[in-house]
Design a protein that fits this description.
It comes from Chryseobacterium pyrolae. The protein is α+β, with helices and mostly antiparallel strands. The protein has nine helices and 28 strands.
Length: about 475
């Protein structure tokens, strides 16, 4: 018989603890769903308890797609208190079985402080415990280093894409740190990662390096390979986040290689004529690092601007960045070059210097638009739309307009990722995208938080009504 009070483990300090995870084996049900678990509604999936396929006991939790869900995800989770005190390691585990998977499966967890703010997070992939699809039952786990600031876990799993997956026998326990000396390979990799941040991060002076390094000595015990170092790397990233960095992240080798040869976001820019004389251009995120693809993307945007400007008597422009969550800023800015104008558009700034980014004759960074377009009326009003999904390079694109006399921004505050990330290739093929500078507009205003729009406009709650576009149109016609 399974236990609801799970996984009692002894720490190196000799303290015993219990982790309260309710209905960990999905035995208790309400309307064919497991009680105590939050199931996010998604019409593309069927979620139920299964009394035929299970690891043990009476039930498992089954998730399967009911329609094409290749671009969707079904999650489930539970919030539970973190027991114990002091600096310690906690393991969260579950058994997984799957078939006909064409997407991905993962366990995931968020660590919350007393205000329910996320202070750490991880999933099967980021912790190098990727769940193998289309296999029989196997236990998978996540590990976190926590202290007295950690009060709750949000723990669960998900199916991304199509297929069928079963989850069973979840558990949470404290586990002792190893006493075995780490290998040279593991320590070298941890030092490599730590030193990149110590030298280059704009938040490096806000980290208590003495405390961090002392804790790393404890965490790294028993680690033998680079893959084993995931918990130590995650702990470094956690300290970086606590120092104020919400932008840096690690990109897998597979993801980096994909960006080098394709555009994973694969969303095309859009344009249309509004109200007979207003040119509308929507610039989506663009994540490819491929120069040719970036130049093609920028060329499409300029072609849209050219067609609107030559076919119609354009009085003003609306640049829509509300869904632009970032990626590679240079193709976006090169494409919008006819609207931003030439010259210095903004700066990257750190404690030692400021470096400008520019647009000139179709070029921004390594991106080049052949036969670049020049507006017939460079003084025409430009309304830039932004919101909470305008992030990272989307924000840098917005900043490229700020400070022009003929520009106003409309909408809601941006996401607040107004730092520039520089890529550092790690010895295992992954890339650390590290925030190394803040951003500054052409007037010298520095951005360390969200960009506040000139005109605040709440999104419309009515279907077929766009409040931000309406407000921008009214301003242009004034």
């Amino acid at each position: 018989m399974k236990k609801i009070i799970l996984s009692i483990a002894v720490l190196t300090t000799g303290i015993w603890t219990q982790a309260q995870l309710q209905n960990p084996d999905f035995e208790q049900t309400e309307n064919s769903l497991p009680s105590a678990w939050k199931i996010e509604p998604n019409d593309l999936y069927l979620v139920k308890t299964d009394d035929v396929v299970k690891y043990s006991g009476k039930n498992s939790l089954q998730i399967s797609n009911t329609a094409d869900a290749s671009a969707s995800m079904q999650t489930f989770s539970q919030m539970l208190p973190i027991q114990g005190s002091g600096f310690r390691k906690v393991r969260l585990s579950g058994y997984v079985r799957s078939e006909n998977i064409t997407g991905s499966i993962a366990l995931y967890a968020y660590v919350k402080n007393g205000e329910k703010i996320t202070i750490d997070q991880g999933n099967s992939e980021t912790q190098n415990h990727k769940i193998t699809a289309n296999k029989d039952w196997k236990e998978y786990s996540l590990e976190f280093v926590v202290d007295d600031n950690a009060k709750n876990f949000l723990f669960g799993g998900f199916l991304s894409g199509n297929g069928k997956v079963w989850f069973d026998d979840f558990s949470v326990s404290e586990v002792p740190f190893s006493e075995k000396i780490a290998s040279k390979e593991a320590l070298t990799y941890i030092d490599e990662f730590k030193n990149i941040i110590k030298k280059n991060s704009i938040f490096k002076d806000k980290i208590n390096w003495s405390s961090l390094e002392n804790h790393l000595q404890i965490i790294s015990k028993g680690m033998e390979t680079v893959d084993d170092t995931a918990l130590a790397i995650q702990y470094i990233m956690k300290n970086l986040k606590q120092a104020g960095d919400n932008h840096s992240f690690i990109d897998s080798k597979e993801s980096f290689d994909k960006k080098s040869t394709s555009n994973p976001t694969a969303i095309e820019p859009e344009s249309q004529l509004l109200d007979q004389n207003i040119g509308y251009v929507m610039v989506p995120p663009f994540s490819s690092l491929n120069k040719e693809m970036g130049s093609s993307f920028a060329g499409k945007i300029q072609s849209m601007i050219r067609k609107l400007d030559t076919d119609y008597p354009i009085k003003g422009w609306i640049v829509d960045l509300r869904t632009n969550m970032g990626g590679n800023m240079h193709p976006m800015i090169a494409g919008l070059g006819p609207l931003t104008g030439e010259g210095v558009l903004g700066y990257f700034v750190d404690s030692k210097k400021k470096t400008p980014w520019k647009y000139a004759n179709g070029t921004c960074g390594a991106i080049i638009v052949l036969n670049p377009y020049v507006l017939q009326n460079p003084k025409a009003k430009i309304a830039v739309l932004m919101g909470s999904r305008t992030a990272s390079s989307g924000e840098a694109t917005a900043i490229s307009f700020i400070g022009k006399d003929n520009v106003k921004t409309f909408g809601q505050p941006s996401a607040g990722y107004t730092s520039a990330n520089r890529g550092f290739k790690l010895s295992d093929g992954r890339n650390l995208l590290l925030a190394v500078s803040y951003e500054m507009d052409r007037t010298g205003k520095e951005y360390k938080e969200k960009i506040q729009p000139d005109i605040s406009v709440a999104p419309s709650e009515k279907a077929n009504t766009d409040a931000e576009v309406a407000a921008a149109t009214q301003w242009i016609k004034e």
